[in-house]
Amino acid sequence: MTKAEETTAKQEKDADPAPAAIPVTPPVSVSPPTSALPPIVQFEKVTKTYDDGYTAIKDVTFCVDDKPNAMEFVTILGPSGSGKSTILRLIAGLRPQHPATSGSVLVSGQPVIGPGADRGMVFQDYTSFDNRTVEDNVAFGLECRGMPAKERREQAREWIGKVGLNVDRDSTKYPHQLSGGMRQRVAIARSLILGPKIMLMDEPFGALDPRTRLNMQDMLVSLSREAQATVFFVTHSIEEAVYLGDRTFIISSAPGTILKEMPVPPPDFPARVMQQQPEFMKIVFEIRDIMEKLESSTRAGDE
Amino acid sequence: MAQSFRELMILRNNPPPMLRRALGALGIVLVVFVWWLLTRGASAETRIISPVLLPSPGEVVRSVPGLFSERGLIESTVATLKRVLSGFGLAILVGVPLGILAGSYRLFDAITGPLSLFARNIPVAVLIPLTILWFGIDETQKTMFIFIATAPFVFFDAARAVIDVHERYVETAQTLGASSRQIISKVLIALALPDIFSSLRSLFGLAFGYIMLAELVNAKYGLGYLLMSSQRRALTEHIFAILILIGLLAYGIDRLLLFFERGLFPYRQASE
Hints:
The complex is a heterodimer. By secondary structure, chain A is of the alpha/beta class.
């Protein structure tokens, strides 16, 4: 979030009394060793170097467990050009980031071979298909699966409602009649309707105004919990990363590597309430400090 | 008045639609007025330009009924349109699918790249002797002439339209589980179609221009033939009348295609 956005968020102070202080100490990630499921996403020393010699990410290693009924929301923070998107695109299996130059990218224990509907992706650019109505956009994946028109439209309308659009008014609209926020709602519905186990979100709210952005954050929190999907959410807004995430990865500038992995308090309150609490701000400032320090130290450590 | 004139003179400022049309009409009126001035006079000697070179607007208008009754204008127009439609139709049937293939698979685009550049740069007049050699002087030659002259452009424009579909749409479809075939039909073709249609609209104008060339050289009927024989028989007013009718016909066809374009792709703002 930029300075201007912060101020707006402050001005929009809720009339409601501030809810109880948020737990600063995050829920300890108790991963019972009894769980036989392989990690949902595992990176092992992943490096991506392009033909021209540019290295986008270097030795990225992390592991996100597959915990049924406790799906994790991972946010990825970093300066622009730090290879945040590279990590997402490697999980998605999208070229030219995929395949990695070295290291292994595993999803549920299996190497990624290409894109698939089990890993939904929402981009910052608006990607609604211009020739399709909202309804047919949302039903796209079901249509590809060969579901009959009546059935898929029914499901689509259900999801159009879930992402906060007006089913009767918006279903038959074309993308050019929608605002940026509405288009992103369509994109989210279009992915979630397929029941992906992983949602990859590449700065999906980056182009939205601060107010819309907060609303979208609230919507995403409740939907991702309901949809039981592990979310990887790239952003360069610290507020957004801290609010949405259960865990945050801080990535250095290129060649990107994970500088720090830290648990953050889960979004238990609405965005505009939680994001102005002093405890929340404290974590944000803390991360800002960490990022600055880590960045300057890596810069100094460069040969 | 002075205020609104100053507003119209602002760089790149659009006049209101009604005024825009009026200004277009004004342009035509001005040209006709100059034409009338140059061809004014009771006898050929008193005119600034001789009627053999430039007949007056009145003479051209008065010659039109004769075009219909004695010269078979309608039959000629139908013959010309048939030739354009068959040749250009064939170019669409061949060029659009191949263009979509080239736009979808870059391998095919790479193979056809230099060939397409070469084919688009063949001077169109060269094709006349060649097609006569290959196809004789009948209708087949006219159809094939239009086909060969326009197919490379149709192919190229269709390929560009598909290539210009942003990669994000393809990636989005992939992460929604679409197969390559589904991406071609549901994403690439669907999103490129409005661009393909609008480029076909402008290429139709090109084809319409080319057919005149083929008809000038050898034809027993058709608008080009009518122009040629008017020149041989020194019917200058008929030449001008036919030119104006060709212009009106081309305009009418373009409006018709634009009407279809707007109906087919309501989600896209078709440009004039």
